Amino acid sequence: xxxxxxxxxxxxxxxxxxxxxxxxxxxxxxxxxxxxxxxxxxxxxxxxxxxxxxxxxxxxxxxxxxxxxxxxxxxxxxxxxxxxxxxxxxxxxxxxxxxxxxxxxxxxxxxxxxxxxxxxxxxxxxxxxxxxxxxxxxxxxxxxxxxxxxxxxxxxxxxxxxxxxxxxxxxxxxxxxxxxxxxxxxxxxxxxxxxxxxxxxxxxxxxxxxxxxxxxxxxxxxxxxxxxxxxxxxxxxxxxxxxxxxxxxxxxxxxxxxxxxxxxxxxxxxxxxxxxxxxxxxxxxxxxxxxxxxxxxxxxxxxxxxxxxxxxxxxxxxxxxxxxxxxxxxxxxxxxxxxxxxxxxxxxxxxxxxxxxxxxxxxxxxxxxxxxxxxxxxxxxxxxxxxxxx
Amino acid sequence: xxxxxxxxxxxxxxxxxxxxxxxxxxxxxxxxxxxxxxxxxxxxxxxxxxxxxxxxxxxxxxxxxxxxxxxxxxxxxxxxxxxxxxxxxxxxxxxxxxxxxxxxxxxxxxxxxxxxxxxxxxxxxxxxxxxxxxxxxxxxxxxxxxxxxxxxxxxxxxxxxxxxxxxxxxxxxxxxxxxxxxxxxxxxxxxxxxxxxxxxxxxxxxxxxxxxxxxxxxxxxxxxxxxxxxxxxxxxxxxxxxxxxxxxxxxxxxxxxxxxxxxxxxxxxxxxxxxxxxxxxxxxxxxxxxxxxxxxxxxxxxxxxxxxxxxxxxxxxxxxxxxxxxxxxxxxxxxxxxxxxxxxxxxxxxxxxxxxxxxxxxxxxxxxxxxxxxxxxxxxxxxxxxxxxx
Lengths: 390, 390
Fold this sequence. Notes:
- 2 copies of one chain form a homodimer.
- Chain A has 11 helices and 16 strands.
- Chain A is an alpha/beta fold.
- An 8-stranded mixed β-sheet of chain A has the order 2-5-10-6-13-14-15-16, with helices on both faces. In chain A, strands 1-7 form a two-stranded parallel sheet. In chain A, strands 3-4 form a two-stranded antiparallel sheet.
- In chain A, strand 3 and strand 4 (21-22) form a beta hairpin.
- At the A-B interface, helix 3, helix 4, helix 5, helix 7 and helix 8 of A face helix 3, helix 4, helix 5, helix 7 and helix 8 of B.
């Protein structure tokens, strides 16, 4: 399946949760499959921290350009684009296409950089609904997302009840725990204390806070993988280079089991994390990272209702599919069960699947037969069935 | 109880596991209580990352100078200095008194800094035994430590079997998991990529990598506290400053529930972590931090025995008390049970207590009635009893 990125310009100002106003903005998006004449088969996919509107398919003449959820969305896949019209949209504040810190600020003619406003899950959902308006889609068959994307799916369900019939909320949480916020804050501190950050105005200095971004990504990465999975994949294995002791600048010692006694990466997990961190620091924008983590920290639908999540969900009319993964310690099954409980308290129609998977939080992006069968069955039955009455 | 730090100079060179040799070095230590004429009542306390030889008591004319394990060690306390002669010793490579990166390198007349060699748990134990030699202590009644201190207690038990009758191993692990190493590596990267680190030679530039140390400590701190405890203590509470919106430089917005929409600390957990990180960065040496985390990464007694921990413990003749805490996710009870299983496989005398405590890894430093009663009972019965046959 060949994907083509599109862009839609919005000139009606968007008031954000912070009170700031975006006078105009663009949203990058992609679509897969065809909108049926009744316009009842649209599915919106919301993304998490490190993803974009490029959900599925590949770009023409670009090898290895599969979308981030290509195993889930496509012809014959669990979210079957032979039937559904799937929309991937890039969030405001991103560095992958929609208006964000790297975009030109129309007020100054220069990139926003640190002046790009704070954005929230609510802001994203508001802007996504405007995109639906432009596409002539009155009601989505489903909104779907994992992690931060799941938060957007939840938010759309109660903020725009009549715009969606099904909400699929995967590996998400009703808000961040103190520990979740703590990890985000350490990552932000790593970025903000990098001398190349310049208070977020690094663009003007022709630099980027690469080291801060690398450390931030390494921290994040630890929380995406389960302890067990890390043990299975890396354990205490030494990286090849360590085992061979190739570093000839160091004196060869009668060392224990090939240890290098230096601060070069020597365990496999070290090499892996540094590689992931460095790769990330080459393409991700620091100002985007800061804003996306704050959006995560802020999301808390129950807060306006005295902590009562059921009250937050009360306006929703959609049916829900909630999925969690047993070894996810970032957003554990217990957090998904809080969502399910609130929906049940509201007597909503909710299906819950707790998938036994070893991969931790990352499981929502990976191939897992039971997980994919669950999503496929839900779309084939519940979502398609709802089109008849739409 | 008034404590007085002492220092012992060793001029016999110490060969380290890395192959490097310390031609001379000092160990800072303190003692509490009196060594009995038979010299059978000595207890060695080993410390973890952020501690020293100052285990118990206070320094004369110095308010709030309690030792780091003052709730455990002292007159009438679980490790009762009215009976036992307790020794606290500072590890080589530390920044608190024993020879380390801040000390003068006799070869150059300048501080070691980055040239201080890598040290291991084995090196520490070797140097501690030399201190015992100087103090005329042939055999310890007990060696005791929590976390990294527990690793030293284990190591002494099999490396110098005839030098100790009891090993008390608290909140420890037989080696670091991939996830443990990952957290250490991220902390090291935060320090080493701080431009003020200068490859470890920051002394010569009259600076210290404060930001890196701060981030490193913040990461570490998250792993010391249980998720639940963090939730109970901080949850999603906003810091006072946030709630009052005192930051008058920012425009007041019709914000949700007092959110500031800035990157200043706003949740309590953020303020807490930054405070802890900044405090740490003012007194801890970066080169010490790097070495202590590597000593943790390297400790793996089973490695030389094809992964068989029982074989590593085989030479030990001590009796063991192993203690873990239910909510410790840094070194979980499962890791302590690995130690216990290996000891049982060896038919050693081992007592195991899994203490129900909400505080996570930090529990080993905190007051907990059951924990303290367990240690007290063990010393009052098993340890004292062993003196008769010593």
